[in-house]
Amino acid sequence: MATKTTAPTGASLSWQVTAPPAVDLVVSLPQPSLDCLSGTVTLAIRGGRLPQVQPKSLALLVDGPHDLKWEQTPTGWVGWRERPGLTQLRWRLPAHTQPYPVNWVVTLADLVLVQTWGLWNHDLSPNAQVLAERLILKHWLRSLPSTPDGAILASTTEPTERTLDWDQSLAALLPTVLAGYDGWQSLGLDPQQDFVGANLTSVDWRGSDWSGCDLRRTNWRGANLNDVDFSGADLRHSRWAGADLSGALLSDARLRGADFRRASLALVNLAGADLSQADLREANLSRANFTGANVVGARFGGNVGLDEAQIMTLRDRGALFVVES
């Protein structure tokens, strides 16, 4: 309900970091409920990274969350899970290794707004709600110590408690969104990077331009995206169930592992896109353009708009046609 513009209040965040000599490193992360303007928000973590940590010096234990996925990158380990609510991670240091500073670093993509109270009406548009959530997460993140890799949420060299203050500019920006503003250009949000992992369910951004943006692990369920430009965007592991992308431009987009089940991709240009391991079962593919697209391991089946010649061509290029039981 609230549209007050009182300054954000501080909140205390605590975590536990322990490193017994040459045994385990444990990071316990909270799901803090924090005062925000005239309401309250609950935040959760669903991922993060361990910069400069190489496999030789740190082994990951398997007793963490079973759905936590890890990827080794040139700068260290990156971990994430599809669901929020990560509360503890545990790593094992080899017995011969001396403990050394290790940071758990998060970016906007690693934060989730789980719940809000007293901040907006239930009938706030999906567009405005998405923008409000991104603003809240971004301004909370600014209260943490920053590094080139992101913000340090936990560290073996940091104190276990710190008082965090909201960025004061949130008090001026959030009421603008709650009043119905549904653009992002004047809100300090960068579409190139500030929507990674965002829940974009039911948004209506017809004709918008997301070309070249980083939109990994975004959820576009039920969204209206007619004629949107996603060319060259990174949309790996994104979800599109029931979304309408009719006429959208997805040429050269990175769509590995994307889930398009029951989405409308009629008249969509997918030329040169990477659709490897994507799920397109029951999607409307009428007059979709797959010229030069990588469809190795992509799953099709029950599609409207594919004739036998197209099916044969896609199979020859590595696509899988699944018969539902």
From TrEMBL:
Name the record gives this protein: Pentapeptide repeat
Domain of life: Bacteria
Residues spanning the signal sequence: none
